[in-house]
Write a structure and sequence with these properties.
Elements lengths: L19 E6 L7 H14 L4 E6 L1 H8 L6 H14 L7 E5 L5 H10 L4 H5 L2 H10 L6 H4 L1 H11 L4 E3 L5 H17 L8 E3 L29 H9 L20 H9 L3 H13 L4 H27 L4 H28 L7
Parallel strand pairs: 1-2, 2-3, 4-5
Helix pairs in contact: 3-13, 4-8, 4-14, 8-9, 10-13, 11-13
This protein binds tryptophan.
The site of tryptophan has 14 residues, from strand 1 and helix 8.
Amino acid sequence: MTAAVSTPKMTAPAKRTRKRILTGDRPTGPLHVGNYVGTLANRARLQDEYDTFLLVADHHMLTTRLTALAEIEANIRDDVLDNLAAGVDPEKVTYVLQSLVPQIPELHLYFSMLVSVPRVQRIPTLKDQLRDLGLREPTYGLLGYPVLQAADILCVKGDLVPVGKDQESHVELTREIARRFNELFAPIFPEPQALLPDVGLLPGTDGREKMGKSLDNAIYLSDDPRTVERKVMGMYTDPKRIRATDPGTVEGNPVFVYHDTFNTDRAEVEDLRRRYREGRVGDVEVKRRLLAALQAFLAPIRERRAEYAARPRLVDEILAAGSERARREAAQTLHEVRAAMKLDYFGR
Ligand code: TRP
C-alpha cells in the first residue's frame, strides 16, 4: 500500500462569499472630521457586511508631489492610524500599501491601452489638479491617475467603492475600463459602483466650502481637546450678527452645519436654531455646545488612536500582512488577465 502523498498545491485565494469593497486614501497627512463624515464612517459601517480592502495610495502621490515626498512615510502612518482610530478594524479590513502590490502597475499598463487620451483629459479632477498645482499641462503620469485608480479597484475585483463625490468620475472610468476589457477579452471584471456619502461636504471652520490642510481650516481626528476648543471657538459664523440679540442666519452657517453633523441631541440643536434666528442666544453658547458634542464624538477616536499608537510596529505589521493578501488576490487576477489577453507565454 502506498502512503497518501499530499501534492503541494498553489494556494488559491479563498472562495468569495461576500461582495468586495476597495477604497483608498492618498497619504497627504492627518485626516480631518470632513474625511470622517465623507468616507471613514461608510468604511466602518460596512466592514462587517463586505470584504473590505483599504488601499493607501502612495504611488498616486508621485503624480503631484514627485519632488516633495519627504513626509510620505509619516503620512502613510498617520493615514493608517486615523483609519484605525475611526474604527476601521484591521481584523475585518485588509489594509494595503499600494506600492507593495506590483500587480497594480502591471494592470495599469494594460488598462492604459484601453483608454483614449481625450477621455482622460475630460476627467474633471484633472482640471482641478492643474489649477491647484499651477500647471498648464499634465504629465503622462498625472493623466493616468484615474487609470491607476481603476487598476487599484479591479486588481481585487472590487464591487463597491466608497469615495467622496469628487471621485465619482474615476469610478465611472473604472466601469468603462472593466466593460471594455470584458468585451475585448473575457468577462473577468465586475463593474464597480461608487458609494457616495449621503451628507454634503463639511465646510471649513472659516466658512469656506472645503476643508483642507493647506487652507488651515480643518479639525483633525488627532487634534487634542485644547486645539479643538481653540478651533471651534474661533469658527466663522453669521458675519452680519453683532449682538446676541440680533436675529441670526442658520442656513449655511458652519457652526450649525457642524451641529447637524455631530450633535446627537437633536432637540438641543432645534432649540439653538430657533433661538439663534430669534436673537435669543449668543454665538458663544452655540459654539460651547458644539464643542461639547465634538469632544464627545472625538473622545473614543482619540482613545483608540492612543492604544494603536502605543504599539510601535503595529502599523508596519498591518500593512505587511494586508498587502500580502492583496498580492495573492491580485496575482490570481493577473493570471486571468494575461491568459485572456494571450500574454500567458513563457509561463506567465
Ligand atoms: N483618488 C482617491 C482620492 O484622491 C484615492 C484613491 C486611490 C482611491 N486609489 C483608490 C479611492 C481606489 C478609491 C479606490 O481620494
